[in-house]
Amino acid sequence: MAHRRDQKERLRREREEREAAAKATQQRKRLFGVGGAVAIAVAAIAIVVVLSGGGGDDAQSAGNNFPEGGSLPEQKVFDLDQAASAAGCELKSNRATSREHLQDPNQKVNYPQNPPTSGKHFAVPADDGLYNAAPPPDTALIHSLEHGRIIIWAKPSLPADARAQLRALMDDDDYQIILVRRAKMPYAVAATAWNHDPTPNGTGRLMGCPTWDDGVIDALRAFRDEHRSNGPEDIP
Length: 236
Known about the structure:
Blueprint: H1 2-32, H2 36-52, H3 80-87, E1 90-95, E2 101-102, E3 121-122, E4 129-130, H4 138-146, E5 150-154, H5 160-172, E6 177-181, E7 189-195, E8 203-209, H6 215-227
Parallel strand pairs: 2-3, 4-6, 5-6
Antiparallel strand pairs: 1-8, 5-7, 7-8
């Protein structure tokens, strides 16, 4: 058991090092690539947006949405269809219709899914990780999906222990994962991904869970493991 923990920790450190190096390379390309002045402006806007927690339907919200102290049940169901069914979650897929880049992170896009799974998006993706205050704009989050990320969306009205469990899920494995709040959606918890097949635009994936119970954690784990690192644009 100790060997498995050590191996898991080593793999996590290696993933974090790869991701940090990739982010640094991306930033240099944005700052000094073609159209440098435009890229610098875009990057500056993105930094302001992320730091301010701007965008989405929770732009004015702040606080400790995902408290520490949660614990995870042992995983019992690993198959996505079975785990989703056991938790009362629904699985949906939709063909993506666009991978167009937008220069304004707050440009309004009428995504057909809620939460959104694919489509036009801001030129700079949202960073991976937990957003304990308000989330980035949907357009930045969609770009992260294009890069193979998994986004977990939670209603802020969830009980505190449920939100703490979601944080514990992130603490357990945060590679290419984003956790945000979303008040205006028809689910208590949802997860989204953007798969690369069929080319060129791929397929959006949504798992929506109307209510919360411990089975939702297994459903989120299974969705994560099924769809992570499978975006139309392969970015570590």
